[in-house]
Design brief:
alpha/beta; five-stranded parallel sheet; three-stranded antiparallel sheet; 9 helices; 8 strands; globular; binds adenosine monophosphate
Length: about 210
């Protein structure tokens, strides 16, 4: 399966991607995670992206398109993949089409802005391995400590309230138009994000089983 996950930042794409990835045995490709890793490693690309990511702005199209091109050429993508956080603009979607990538569906997780703001204030990530947690919805076993690697859980700089509002504006103006783009290709699937993650997962898996 070749799947695009759409939805506002904080709508739960990452969590759903993990579950779909396990269920369908396909890798998740998160441009956000790739960029954050580059930032941490202080590569050229990471340094270029730093100012954008910290303000909640989008990294320029040519940078992320290059990342995706390289990543999709890797062996583990042969049987399918989940794109989490890409495309985020119409030119990025057009670039996928130009690469000859035919997706099965673009699934959008729909969550109200007010709920997004509430959720993002509780989001925590492991500063060592990047695993994500939530103070209400996905608590670590030990407070403030990553279950997988024992790293410290911190608030991502771009999850701070002011940046969250900017990321939501960016989402509505630049990314949400992708819903119409994929609707026109009869690829758009909508799932209402539920209060309980497990309920969202059940809806997501049911929707995917029907394509
Ligand atoms: P995410 O973890 O997907 O919310 O991504 C975090 C940040 O990485 C975004 O706010 C952008 O600055 C950058 N980013 C990730 N994916 C993309 C993309 N497809 N296009 C542009 N910027 C991106």
């Amino acid at each position: 399966m070749k799947l695009i996950l759409l939805g506002a930042p904080g709508a739960g794409k990452g969590t759903q991607a993990e579950i779909i990835s396990e269920t369908y045995k396909i890798p998740t490709i998160s441009t956000g995670n790739i960029i954050r890793a580059a930032l941490k490693a202080e590569t050229d690309m990471g340094l270029k992206a730093k100012a954008y990511i910290e303000k909640g702005e989008l990294v320029p199209d040519e940078v992320v398109i290059g990342i995706i091109k390289d990543r999709l050429a890797e062996d583990d993508c042969k049987n399918g993949f989940i794109l989490d956080g890409f495309p985020r603009t119409i030119p990025q979607a057009e670039a996928l089409d130009t690469m000859g990538i035919v997706i099965d569906a673009a699934l959008s997780i729909e969550v109200e802005d007010s709920e997004i703001v509430k959720r993002m204030s509780g989001r925590r990530v492991c500063e060592k391995c990047g695993a994500s947690y939530h103070t209400l919805y996905k608590k670590p076993i030990k407070d403030g400590i990553c279950n997988s690697c024992g790293g410290k859980l911190v608030i991502r700089k771009d999850d701070e309230p002011e940046t969250v509002l900017n990321r939501l504006n960016v989402y509505h103006s630049q990314t949400e138009p992708l819903k119409d783009y994929y609707k026109a290709q009869s690829k758009l699937l909508l799932v209402e994000g539920q209060e309980d993650v497990k309920d969202t997962t059940a809806l997501v898996l049911k929707t995917l089983s029907e394509i």
